Give the backbone structure.
Amino acid sequence: MAGISFYWGLGLESSLITGTIRVGIQLSILGAILQPIFTYGAKHWWIVLIYVLFMITLASFEASARSRYVFDGMIPCVFASFVISIATTSAFAFGILLEVSPFWNPQYVIPIIGMLLGNGINGVALALNTFLNAVVSDATAEIELCLAYGGTFREASALMTQQAVRVSAMPMLNSMAVIGLISIPGMMTGQILGGSNVVEAARYQMLICYLIGATAFGTILAAVVVCLYVAFDSQNHRLRLERFSKR
């Protein structure tokens, strides 16, 4: 691939080589880290909690890093959005649906939360970038005009909020539309290759898809709401562009 990129002058050689090396190194490190966590985590819940919070922290940095505009406290806000959404869906999944024992069993908790975060990062990144671009740059004049005519900050930002949620949810919805028809998801493929019953693997994959959808949508909504209240003075209905800076 790097050779093709060089031949066509795409300038992606460095990124392709770096990405290939990082995949090998990161997965090797992951295997070395998870082995002791799986061994001791079933007895000590705090080990699993620390690793899950570490995963959410990395996801928050990654999702925030793709936005063109930033504001103070952006990463903690994204972190809180992930925590609220992950905690809600995980409590329902592990406590009611899967009935995992113990509740924090790392064999279930870490892989599933990893999948939820991996799919949620793109949605949150798209939501942040779309909403902040619209409010700070693309639609500033329209927002100011609406506010000048007596509109509330929610009315002035309604179209931008809707657009941000739609754009960020679209990849997830497209994936859900073709799953099982065109593509066989990775978790189901792994279970089938591991010798699991196909019907049971399909049921587990259905559960994961629903959890991914709920978590991603919840995190997207939380992130957009946070950005909305950062961008506007909710009491005086004023746009606060000074709170943002260009990356």
Observations:
- The longest helix spans residues 198-231.
- The chain is about 75% helix and 5% strand.
- The chain has two domains: 1-41, 45-246.
